[in-house]
Specification:
Strand content: 25-35%
CATH class: Alpha Beta
Shape: globular
Helix content: 10-25%
Strand order of the largest sheet: 3-4-5-2-6-7-1-8
Order of helices and strands: EHEHEEHEEEHE
Distance between the termini: 15 Å
Number of strands: 8
CATH architecture: 3-Layer(aba) Sandwich
CATH superfamily: P-loop containing nucleotide triphosphate hydrolases
Length: 182
């Protein structure tokens, strides 16, 4: 049990506002390729949808397209340089609901899949996914932790270490914590 996977990596960055979170999402989106999967984790109000708004812009979705949480529709599709499949598992009761809705197919449809509430059934996520956990620091600040084990996830996380390009909007560009295993 004490074994450490050689490719485990995580980095935690701090956001001080919704625009900071959007900026971080934009950088993440600019790094993503077809087939990448992002699993978002965090309480209500931590900024999962704000991060996805930036991610979509980073993937070339026109900023005038309204990116909203798909809580009631389960999935929203946005066209950018590659499609963005934004899913929300909040209203689903169990894994069988997720599977019955066919949502796991979006992980393999050639776009970028973003799943809010990814901690509900982590076993369904492909091994190459990047887990992004958003946590309250206080009313405005969030710690955003990127983690993964697969070489593709590690590649993305390494490029996220410096925060958003230009560190605008007062973003705290210093790394809060960086963990590499082995």
């Amino acid at each position: 049990m004490g074994t450490c996977l050689a490719k485990q990596k995580s980095v935690t960055l701090r956001s001080s506002s919704a625009p900071d979170t959007i900026g971080l999402g934009k950088k993440l989106g600019s790094l993503l390729k077809e087939g990448d999967v992002i699993g978002l984790v965090g309480e209500l109000g931590t900024g999962k949808t704000w991060l996805t708004k930036g991610l979509a812009v980073g993937l070339g979705v026109k900023s005038e397209n309204l990116v909203t949480s798909p809580s009631f529709t389960l999935v929203n599709v946005y066209e950018g340089r590659i499609p963005v499949y934004h899913m929300d598992a909040y209203r689903l009761q169990d894994l069988s609901d997720f599977l019955a809705a066919g949502l796991e197919e979006y992980f393999y449809m050639g776009g970028v899949a973003v799943l809010e509430w990814a901690d509900r059934w982590p076993e369904i996520l492909p091994p190459h996914h990047v887990r992004v956990e958003l946590a309250f620091v206080d009313e405005k600040q969030r710690d955003i932790t990127f983690s993964g084990f697969h070489s593709r996830a590690v590649e993305i996380i390494k490029q996220m270490e410096g925060g958003p390009q230009g560190c605008r909007h007062g973003f705290d560009c210093t790394k809060i914590r960086r963990d590499e295993c082995c």
